[in-house]
Input
Amino acid sequence: MKEKVQSLVLILLVLSSLYLTYLLWYARVPYEVATQEEYERVYFEEPRPAGRVIAPEKIVFPGQRTNRVLKEGQPGFQEVWGKILEQLEKGVLKGGIVSENRLPRGSLLLQLHFEPPFPIGSGTTAMPERPYRELAGLEIWERGELLELVLKAVEGGEERGLFLEEGGAQQLQELLEKLSPDSMLPYREFQGEELTALVDFPIQVEEPLWIPLLESVPALEIAVEEPEHERLVKIFFTRYNLVRRIDERDGATIYTDGERGLRIGRERLEYSAPLLEHSFSATDSYPAALNQANRLLCYYSGWPAGLRLVGLDLVSGEGGRNSLCRCQWRFYAGGLPLLYGENGWTVEMAFNDGGLIYLNRHLFQPRKAAEEEIVVAPFSQALKKAFKEYQEQGAEEEGPAYLEAVELAYLVDFADSAYRGQPVWVVRINGREMILDGKSLHLLEGGAR
Output
């Protein structure tokens, strides 16, 4: 009898050992998920207010032929957007104060274009009393002494008859009066027929294309952030006392605890936690994804002035559920984007409900614009050069040429032992992006992608 009991105990011990080994190898919950409430986190900064996660892609002040545009990184941009957002969040909009057929003749004061969309309504901080929707744009019209808001939804259609309260309208108008048109960027809307005549090549555009009319841009100095290794290790790893360090020949340093890795180089840092990707799903709520992106960026990277969220995509997985969310941010200097790397993003991130899966962050930051002005070629010449390259690459055989974007930007360049922003024209045709030197219009190495 005693031997049977001993045998049974041994069998149970063996089985429990096998089960625990299985859990150890195949069913481990990532340590940071299991113990996230037990440790005081080290992080860069507190998350932004929910309404500040999305900023307009541009704020347009209409003109006769040339429009004046404010973008991220320009004086006055955050002040104007902040004042409009303040009114949206206060809910001090009133509708139906006067019937449509009795409204004074109106004039368009300004337009806001959102990319990605701006969420409003139930579950958000902007106009929370109204039904949820996502805005592609917003217009403000002067109607005598009234300021009318026109909401333009992503799915199409618009809503009129919403008016700013008198106090908010007056504050916004006083702020706009202080802005100098000379501090804004000149833009024009072009139709496909106009652009076809410019380059003598059939061009199609899905909607009017906004193109800058700048003749010169300020010289831009670029700074490279010095990463604090010890602080970064404590931010990315809960069990930082178990982290191994590996020094690479190119000067980069890798830190890993076996589940996740952090690589800190001279110009960028990369983080990955691959176990999370297949262990959790991602939210299907756009506002929830924005809030999580905001929290993760501020905790792990920080959100300095001039950095704008330019993309957010929910990626579907098996069973129709979202597997992860991808986001991109980009720096702007004087309204022009700062480009570097293969895709031009400043920060690229992937996450799901389990946490941060991937982060790629460049360490460049625009420092200041010098008084020196750099002359750039007209956009028409840049367009002709881009279509010539497009034809020489044989891309025209792919079908009609859809022109998607013509934009001025700064490309990070290293010369004379210093980083600077090189002005470039960026032309995108059928998803093919060409980067041309802003002055000479030479196609830059790696500039066709």
Notes: Residues 67 and 187 are 5 Å apart (CA to CA). The longest strand covers residues 401-415.
